[in-house]
Amino acid sequence: MVALRKTVSEAEYLERDRTSPIKLELVAGEIFAMAGAKLSHNRIERNIIRHLENQLATGACEVLPSDMRVKTPGGLYAYPDITVVCGEPQLDSDEHLDTLLNPVVIIEVLSDSTEMFDRGEKFHAYRTLPSLQEYILIAQDTRHVEHFLRQSDSWIYTDATAADSVITLPSIGCTLALAEVYRKVVFADDNETKNPQD
What angle do CA 105, 91, 138 make, to 5 degrees? Predict the structure, then answer.
């Protein structure tokens, strides 16, 4: 993420984002341009969306890709990699209907440039969403899924690294199987194992 300009209003940000060729996020009055993603990142996103959609096909919840903007009560505007909303989507009150207010699950695929933000300030802002029940961080350079589940006023942490691990998402009645999350994703040590150096 690269900061473009300091201290803008929400209205200025939205006007700029809606006409920008790239996605922009608003953090504490600063606009940040979102960088492109690696192949592994895109594969993981695609895998998770397909895996969850298969489980949610007949229910009241739906999976939304990374083009769905989310707003927190404190004024963070962000584009989560994957969002799940249940029931009627609540959208910001403007004619564009492009900003979601009630995600139930948010999933971020970590990258070097955004990992600290996703773990820190962004998660802090996401936690202020009354609707949010689960937050999931997915590593893309190693097999590692971290799961935060809201229970009253606290968040319960679990993680998984084994290829046959399964994370349960109780708020939407789904599971995330790591074998599905990382389908077709090749890690650096996989290459080393297959092609040992002399």
Answer: 25
